[in-house]
Amino acid sequence: MSYLEALILAIIEGLTEFLPVSSTGHMILASSLMNMDDPHFAETFEIVIQLGAILAVLFLYIKRFFVSVKIYLKLFVAFLPTGIIGLLAYKTIKLYLFNPYVVSISLIFGGIVLILLDKWGSQKTSQYKEIEDISFKDALKIGFIQCFSMVPGISRSAATIFGGIFSGFNRQQAAEFSFLLAIPTMFAASGYDLLKEKDNIHSNDIIILVFGALVAFIVAFIAVKAFVSFLTRYGFKHFGYYRIILGVLFLTYALSTGLHLTP
User: Fold this and answer.
1) Residue 263 lies in a domain
2) What tens digit of pLDDT does each residue of 113-138 get?
3) Is 140 part of a structural domain of the chain?
4) Is the pTM of this model over 0.90?
5) What is the rounded CA–CA span in Å between residue 44 and residue 198?
6) Is 41 contained in some domain?
7) Is the pLDDT of residue 82 over 50?
8) Whose CB among 3, 14, 55, 112 lies 3.0–4.6 Å from 216's, allowing a Cys bridge?
9) What percent of the chain lies above the pLDDT cut of 90?
């Protein structure tokens, strides 16, 4: 992998990981377009740079974890469904769903949902003063909705924000809970992937992996702060339009070029 390819993927990861547009979907599409020489290492690289993006959120919201122990318990409950189902379905999902066609269709479907969510949630007031006040039942509900994001292109962020609004949060609270829930969810997913791929990481790959993680950290740090401000002013609909346009364009490209099912 060249440093230019690493830079492009890391920027995409940092920009999209916490936005409701599907970072996994974007990475699959980008990898397909760049047609990299070593797709197996590209997969490992994508796992490592996710950790950089996670650390950006941890850095931004570290104070939240010192406010009350309740936030740990609620996040743990919300994480459980994805942790269990993800572990059981990991191989099947990787084998059958990680391809540009699934991503394109999921982007379009998720875009429509976001546009509808914007109309439904724009005037919604929160049932909770603070995000850690959410009930365990509603936290678990968000966790089950997050499971849909195992389909690449759906977006973990979009699914959990939808779940948060559906469970009583306003838009900003739903986004912040989604960011925090990303920390255990992505650490578990990335850690599991890294454990499986550890024998394929060589000493000469370390520099480019660190480079990618650092770029993803910086870009994610900026993107998260900008997203909260944008969401407060404009809502979700613009992300929905973007998803639909990108999904239609790439599905058209994939069908016209006969792009292989493998990313």
Assistant:
1) no
2) 999 888 876 667 788 888 999 999 99
3) yes
4) no
5) 9
6) yes
7) yes
8) 14
9) 35
